[in-house]
Amino acid sequence: MKNTAKTLIALEVLSAGGDVSQAAELANTSRQTIYKWLDDPEFSRELAKKQSEAVQRLSARFIALGDKALAAIEAGLNDRAISTRLRAASIYGSKYQSFIELGLLEQRITALERQALTRVKK
Predict the structure, then answer these.
(1) Where are the domains of the chain?
(2) What angle do CA 42, 46, 112 make, to 5 degrees?
(3) How far apart are the first and last CA of the chain?
(4) Using N-to-C axis directions, what is the helix angle for 82-121 and 41-77, rounded to 10°?
(5) Whole-number Å distance between alpha carbons of 103 and 95
């Protein structure tokens, strides 16, 4: 598939979370054309690449906010008002469990990747 101005616009809209109707409108084409492009392996690969890049950018920004968020929770835990301390503790508790689960999931994925690589090398 040739990258034209219309396909590039559609890729940008779709990779940013827009739907087919929005992509068609902004690319000045039909929804059927967008669906046709989505069936094209080259277009789909490019869309997946752009979506992955967007997720990586957002992840980096989200991680960068972590220190500020933890500082805010810590300040809340040290606040004089009990209601503020309890709310900060509640936020910490709910997010701590998610963090632990994410860490365990990452360990499991790493172990599976090692097993897969070991099998490939044999």
Answers:
(1) 1-65, 79-122
(2) 100
(3) 38
(4) 140
(5) 12
Higher pLDDT, 40 or 94: 40
pTM: 0.59
**22: which residues sit within 8 A by CB, 6+ positions away?**
13
Mean pLDDT of 84-100: 87
Contact 61, 25 (CB under 8 A): no
- The rounded distance, in Å, linking the Cα atoms of 15 and 20 is 11
Q: With bands split at pLDDT 50, 70 and 90, how would you rate the model's confidence at 3?
A: confident
CA 56/CA 74 separation, integer angstroms: 27
Three-state DSSP state, 81: coil
How far apart, in whole angstroms, are the C-alpha atoms of residue 34 and residue 12?
Answer: 12
